[in-house]
Design goal:
By secondary structure, this protein is an alpha/beta fold. It contains eleven helices and twelve strands. The strands form three sheets. It has a seven-stranded parallel sheet with strand order 3-2-1-4-5-7-10, with helices on both faces. It has a three-stranded mixed sheet with strand order 8-9-11. The chain has a two-stranded parallel ribbon with strand order 6-12. Helix 1 packs across helix 8 (250-262). 47% of the residues are buried.
């Protein structure tokens, strides 16, 4: 759904927005949303060849001057984004290390350093008005099953930063807690930077939960979107490893990024914005598949599956969007080309 942004946007149409990691699942949708709204996008990736298919798509759909690619090989290197930031009015920093290592230093330090590096570079560019950091639901919470608890815009995941260091090397959840700690500490570092350095731009952060929805580039790493395609083909084993939690359609995540960059309704002091539509588990996905494709046979429901009973305050995101897409909408968009 298109975000409800006012006509007097913070950034006028035609402004250039930098999107880091533009070849990723979420980032590619953010680029598409920005281009559809009349902005120009400069996308970064480690090697420009990774964006060849998407760039061809966007040039055909929005014009040859709509999108350009810049290679940034090491996002943690100081000054890595200096050239790419010149002349931009907004930044969507989505690139982040996704290594699931058992060594906290290999994941947490690059995440924090990469975030601070691009913030320092952005602070030197007077044309930048908005900076949007893609955080994660895990920066605010560690998923729990069959436990009721409230999660607000000011809630932080205190568990993972502690467990990232204290859990033994062979603990199966250690890599996941390290990843979650990297998102928590990376986002906190960004807010601390804003408080201490007081740059002229506004920072907003987006906290997406599990993203489903259409894949714009078949060559993209499958991410969570690939799980639904496997389930469509009868293989639900990978989806069994996803605990009950909240979902969001990736197109809604993209539109929230667009609103975070452009909406004048957001406070100058910045906001944390949830991108989470509602809770789900594997049986909800199977139900959606059966509803969408009644002539096709899917595996039976999984017995003993629990529920995510957390109550996430997603009101701000819903208001910016004008409403959330359903799980069935996301499943349809993820699988309709397979029929």
């Amino acid at each position: 759904m298109q975000p409800q942004t006012a006509l007097d946007n913070t950034m006028p149409q035609g402004s250039v927005v930098l999107v880091t990691g533009a070849n990723g699942f979420i980032a590619s949708h953010v680029v598409e949303a920005l281009l559809a709204a009349g902005y120009k996008v400069r996308g970064t990736t480690r090697t420009t060849s990774k964006l060849a298919t998407l760039q061809a798509r966007w040039h055909k759909k929005f014009g040859l001057d709509s999108f350009e690619t810049v290679a940034v090989e090491d996002i943690t290197k100081e000054g890595a984004f200096d050239m790419a930031l010149q002349g931009v009015s907004g930044v969507a920093h989505i690139a982040s290390p996704t290594t699931f290592s058992t060594n906290p230093a290999e994941v947490i330090e690059p995440s924090v350093n990469g975030t601070l590096s691009i913030l320092r570079s952005a602070a030197k560019v007077s044309s930048i008005k908005r900076f949007v950091l893609t955080s994660s639901s895990t920066a605010a919470l560690w998923p729990k099953q069959n436990v009721e608890f409230d999660v607000g815009e000011d809630t932080w995941n205190e568990e993972s930063p502690a467990l990232a260091s204290s859990l033994p090397e062979d603990h199966p959840l250690k890599p996941w807690h390290i990843y979650s700690a990297s998102k928590t500490l990376g986002e906190r570092a960004a807010w601390n930077f804003m408080k201490e350095q007081k740059p002229t731009f506004t920072l907003n952060t987006v906290l997406p939960d599990t993203n489903f929805g259409p894949i714009l580039d078949p060559q993209q790493p499958a991410s969570t979107a690939g799980l639904l395609r496997q389930a469509f083909n009868g293989d639900i084993k990978p989806l069994l490893f996803v605990p009950p939690q909240w979902f969001v359609d990736v197109r809604d995540t993209a539109d929230i990024h667009l609103a975070a960059l452009t909406s004048p309704t957001l406070a100058a002091g910045g906001a944390r914005i949830w991108a989470a539509a509602g809770p789900f588990n594997i049986n909800d996905v199977l139900k959606a598949l059966r509803n969408l494709y009644p002539k096709k046979t899917f595996p039976d429901d999984v017995e003993g599956i629990e529920r995510d009973l957390s109550r996430i305050d997603n009101k701000r995101g819903g208001e910016l969007l004008g409403g959330w897409r359903s799980l069935e909408d996301a499943v349809r968009a993820n699988t309709e080309d397979l029929v």
